Amino acid sequence: MSAARLAERAAPGTPTPDTVVHLRDVTKTYGDVRALRGVSLDVTARELVAVVGPSGSGKSTMLNTVGTLDRPTSGSVRIAGHDVGSMRDDDLSRLRAEHIGFVFQHFHLQAGATAAENVADGLLYAGVARRARLERAKDALERVGLGHRVGHRPTELSGGEKQRVAIARAIVGDPTILLADEPTGALDSASGQRILTLLRELNDSGTTVLVITHDLALAASLPRQVRMRDGAVEEDSSTSDAGVLADAIAGVAR
Ligand code: ADP
């Protein structure tokens, strides 16, 4: 039997070659605030995971830990096979440049820069020359359906278009994992739906996606839901009875 097959048969919670996110007993404290109280989570390549839970339950802290922006207080974090706990800051920057794309609720675009320049910034730490960065930025804007807006500045774009630019910036380096923190939170529902469709398309083409959302109907429509409460994973549809959490979430959404 191959090593990969053996690994697949390993005990639950043991990372396999396909495990791109492996959190084990992760805690994070800020002063006396315990933002994460022992989070364990495994995500396999090409999964599309919704992260839900009340405000303050630790969703953003968990996502930032996966994105290596936050270091855990204790516990182990492996991202794309790398043990993050033992890595220096410059190695972490390289890991992020190679493997991780971020999308935020409020886009975080540079107001004075065009869509193409904003997207090209996603390659700043990837060692790509400026001209090549802009070429790849245009390709990424094509991928998100904004090939006709490359020269527009954020003030000339709708909210949905700004989020598409932010997604293009996140994917321009072909990341393994796309992390989205409330990407539809600042959008009307039609624009939000289009952003979700785009995330699904990116997932279909091979990107692992973790998306935090308050939109329970949206969460219920995704293949896997992870529900957080008080800094821990309260329920994970991949380990509970199939569909029970999705049904529960959809029930709340109705
Ligand atoms: P959620 O994304 O579910 O709303 P967060 O991860 O943002 O939750 O926050 C979890 C808890 O950690 C909250 O009590 C929040 O106030 C606290 N927290 C998050 N980031 C910081 C920080 N940088 N400094 C202090 N407390 C923080």
Keywords:
alpha/beta, Rossmann fold, six-stranded mixed sheet, four-stranded antiparallel sheet, 9 helices, 35% helix, disordered N terminus, binds adenosine-5'-diphosphate
The helix/strand order is HEEEHEEHEHHHEHEHEEH
- Name the bound molecules: adenosine-5'-diphosphate
Question: What is the level-2 CATH architecture name?
Answer: 3-Layer(aba) Sandwich
Strand content: 15-25%
Mean pLDDT: 89
Short description:
This protein has 254 residues and is α/β, with parallel strands linked by helices. 35% of the residues lie in helices and 25% in strands.
Describe this structure in words.
- By secondary structure, the chain is an alpha/beta fold.
- It has helices at residues 3-8, 59-66, 89-99, 115-120, 130-143, 159-171, 189-204, 216-220, 244-253, and strands at 19-30, 33-44, 48-52, 74-79, 82-83, 100-104, 177-181, 208-212, 224-229, 232-236.
- It is built from 9 helices and 10 strands.
- A hairpin with a 2-residue loop joins strand 9 (224-229) and strand 10 (232-236).
- The chain is globular.
- The relative contact order is 0.17.
- Residues 1-10 have low confidence and may be disordered.
- Bound molecules: adenosine-5'-diphosphate.
- Residues 30, 33, 35, 53, 55-61 line the site of adenosine-5'-diphosphate.
Q: What is the secondary structure topology, with strand pairs?
A:
Elements: H1 3-8, E1 19-30, E2 33-44, E3 48-52, H2 59-66, E4 74-79, E5 82-83, H3 89-99, E6 100-104, H4 115-120, H5 130-143, H6 159-171, E7 177-181, H7 189-204, E8 208-212, H8 216-220, E9 224-229, E10 232-236, H9 244-253
Parallel strand pairs: 3-8, 3-9, 6-7, 7-8
Antiparallel strand pairs: 1-2, 1-4, 4-5, 9-10
Bound molecules: adenosine-5'-diphosphate (ADP).
